Amino acid sequence: MRSAPVYNFPVSLAKQALLADVRHSAWANRNLLEGCSALTAEELSRDFRISHANILATLQHTCDGERVWLLCLRTAEPGTWRLPMEPGPALPLNALRQTWPDIWNGFDRWLGEQTESSLAAELNLQLPGGVEQRFPRWKILRHVLDHSTLHRGQVVGMIRMLGHQPPSVSPMDYYLAGEPAAV
Questions:
Q1: Nearest to 155 by CA among 61, 41, 20, 23
Q2: Rounded CA gap, 26 and 131, in Å?
Q3: Would the pTM count as exceeding 0.85?
Q4: Alpha-carbon distance 183 to 80, whole Å?
Q5: What is the tens place of the pLDDT at every residue in 27-61?
Q6: In 95-107, which positions are buried (b, 16+ CB within 10 angstroms) versus exposed (e)?
Q7: What are the Cα distances from residue 106, in Å, to 9, 38, 98, 100, 103?
């Protein structure tokens, strides 16, 4: 496990909260992947008729969403950032376990480098349906975190529907665990 970076400069309460949320999300994703590794291929692909049909597809969607939004947040170019319309790769669970930590670390590093003004800087986004809107980077990050939380909850529900005990993913469990690093 890597340890969370220690900053030698004052960090605002808002940035501290975002860092805690990014690190909790990574920890919760890791726990969910570990919990899902005990499931059979049939259980991972069972169609529950919710979210993205099954556990594996929902995890793939969540990982791809985080990948895409990290690319967006890292963009420094003026102009409009277009949300990719093509689906991400259909990675097996083991590949998700290998590639997703790089995304979690990417969010942590990116956020650690941001100033208050860079978090407030707006990006022009083109969303599905041709909708264009300007958003500050911190709101995009909040969206990513909320999106991942939503889908983790759906996967937890699917695991319960299979009759298994889901792993801990809540913020309080993260705090009680001593806020461990995700990878």
A1: 61
A2: 30
A3: yes
A4: 33
A5: 999 999 999 999 999 999 999 999 999 999 999 99
A6: ebbeebbebbebb
A7: 21, 27, 14, 10, 5
Name the β-bridge partners of 132.
126
Helices then strands, each counted (H, E), the chain: 7, 3
Sign of CA dihedral 28, 34, 38, 44: positive
The three-class DSSP label of residue 64 is helix
DSSP-assigned beta bridge partners for residue 170: none
Give me the residues of the chain with pLDDT under 70, please. 1-11, 182-183
Angle (deg, nearest 10), helices 55-74 and 137-161: 170
CATH class of residue range 19-176? mainly alpha
